[in-house]
Amino acid sequence: MVERKFGNSDIHYNKEVDDVDEDGVLVINEHNRVQAKFPDFLPSWDPRQKYPPLRFHKYIDPASRADPDFPNLFPKGGDHKITRITPKFGTEVDGIQLSQLNDAGKDELALLLAQRKVLLFNDQDFASHGPGFAVEFGKYFGPLHIHPSSGSPKGHPELHITYRRPEKGELERIFRERTTNTGWHSDVTYELTPSRFTVFQVLESGDGGDTVFADTAEAYRRLSPAMQQRLEGLHVLHTSEDQAANSTFQGGIERRKAVSNIHPLIRLDPVTGEKSIYVNRAFGRRIVELKKEESEYLLNFLYDVIERSQDLQLRVNWEGGRRNKVALFHNSGVSHTATFDTEDGEVRHAYRISVLGERPIAKLEDLNKEEYTPGDLEQALRGIKPID
Question: Which residues form the TauD/TfdA-like domain (predicted)?
């Protein structure tokens, strides 16, 4: 069931408070536009934009070309500082400007990201270069995802904008029917080739609005051997139908029809060889090999492992955008959630670039095989709703 009254409040158009410009494009209302510190990054929703479903593509991670000593990313004698956020995952870097990396440095960045899963770079200049520069940076690593319904700056559909409006009463509306709005997920897992990793920056915010990350590879390692063995070979149905319905309910757009795909519950990272728990409360609907009650019981157990184990997690404080922090995070071995703890009436404006990766696999032998079929999609969909 779609939780329409409060879901996705910061990515979809809202017909109650937003505007339509002279070209029929849906935009943020004028009062909020003139207050924005980064107007070039404000979201718009063009109903004329239509895209087909994603097709299969082979993906070779740039990390496979990287020098494991990182001589280009972290040059010898350079004035940079590297700090582990937690022992197991997450690294914070000062003194490196991502926009100035050469291709070899970008390859090494991809390798470090595969190893540490969350990277945080301080004092970056992406915002000053504008949305087009951010898009071109992301394209180096692979094809970029165009979100089916979220806002994007005009002319740059590859940027996904999150925009929590600074209207008084926004948080009261969000919490009217629930005590928390945390929503743990990995990005766009409903796609045939989901996001390999995400580039994310909070441009403007009040205090709070942190992002919390959970290490789902470590979560897998914590399970007993018997439980690990039981999970091997299971697959989960992921769908974007609820997200699409939420956008339509709020008066938004549909650039691409809702899609569903089946992915392994235990996902293998082709760069590191790590296994991780690949479940998603936002888009995952059912373990296709199990009956409904069995699936719900097991998925809820795995959600609890990821969401409640604080010793699997790290938290990024965006400092209101003042430090120009840019985060890169994997989606195969990491889940994340935004927090909704800013003061009422304060804006939270951010952009996201999602680099599409390989079709998720459980075994390395299936990497980049178009004929790889993890399950019967129509039969899986029939398990959650009737098919006409």
Answer: 82-353
